[in-house]
Amino acid sequence: MSNTKLIIEERAANIGNFMVGRLLPFRQKRMVGPFIFIDHMGPVKMSEKDNLDVAMHPHIGISTLTFLFEGAIIHRDSIGTEIEITPGAVNWMTAGKGAVHTERTPERLRKSTKKLHGLQIWVALPLEEEQCEPSFAHVSADEIPSWEDDGVQFKLIAGKAFGKQSPVPVYSPLFFIEIKSSKTQTITIGEYLFGESALYILEGSITSEEHTYESKQLLVAKDSTLCSFEIAANSTIYIFGGEPFNEERFIEWNFVSSNKELIAQAKEDWKSHKFPAVPNETARIPLPEQRRFGRK
């Protein structure tokens, strides 16, 4: 990335019985466009005794995006959804004024060895949609726009770019792009990007201005329109971003809002069991001890 502003290393974080690599938020960069939270899950090999079990937990003010490279997760939510996500597909849950969900290893895999690897992302909602009705969308892998150009494979997972549009129902101008290259070559795509942008290296490396960056690094650009870099052979990267919001966003636990009072109310509602429940689920993650409000 010829205009790298900030380099963020993955940091270990615990999400219950599972360790992840946290990319956003970061103290020097709370958001990139509307993207406010990104976890890299795995890769991890799990035994027949180990399973992903994230009990009921609430969200407000965001859409959650789950994208897997390996494995499978059963998503259940208070909207009434129960669906298995597999590699290449997108689960997109818009919490709006409040939704609750769980994430578990599918029953068919619980007594066998398995792998899990993917990204979990929160996308903040624009001001006029922060309190919208909750909704859910599942987009299968074959619905994601995919194409190849001179040995480079592209996927437009969400948003708009390259004159294409993903079917994921986003609420503000953004992009989330996968790029894989079978050979070392220069990629210049700045003309297709807008707003803020960042580049995450999943596998392999990239070189920009005689600096080489390796996997598990997130590079935040100064100017998305100057996005040009050399990608090494057999590398996989993700570029995401979009138009930033005018209003500051606050984040506390699983709650995101431009209004601290809405977050305070959500905390009280969760403690008082006022959020809708997930059908056929009973276990709840309790509200953590006091945490400070995040800043954009």
Description:
With 296 residues, the chain is mainly beta. It contains 1 helix and 25 strands.
Descriptive terms for the model:
mainly beta; seven-stranded antiparallel sheet; 1 helix; disordered C terminus
SSE sequence, one letter per element: EEEEEEEEEEEEEEEEEEEEEEEEEH
User: What percentage of the residues does DSSP assign to strands (E)?
Assistant: over 45%
Structure class: mainly beta
Q: Distance N terminus to C terminus? A: 23 Å
**Global geometry:** globular
Helix content: under 10%
Largest sheet: 8 strands, antiparallel
Low-confidence stretches: 14-20, 292-296
What is this structure, in a nutshell?
The protein has 296 residues and is mainly beta. Helix content is 4%, strand content 50%. Residues 14-20 and 292-296 have low confidence and may be disordered.
What's the topology here?
Blueprint (H helix, E strand, L loop, with lengths): L3 E6 L1 E4 L4 E6 L10 E12 L6 E7 L2 E9 L2 E5 L4 E4 L4 E5 L4 E6 L9 E11 L10 E5 L6 E4 L2 E10 L2 E2 L8 E8 L3 E4 L7 E8 L1 E4 L2 E4 L2 E5 L6 E4 L3 E8 L7 E3 L2 E3 L2 H12 L25
Antiparallel strand pairs: 1-21, 2-3, 3-4, 4-11, 5-10, 6-9, 6-11, 7-8, 7-10, 9-12, 13-14, 14-15, 14-16, 16-23, 17-22, 18-21, 18-23, 19-20, 19-22, 24-25
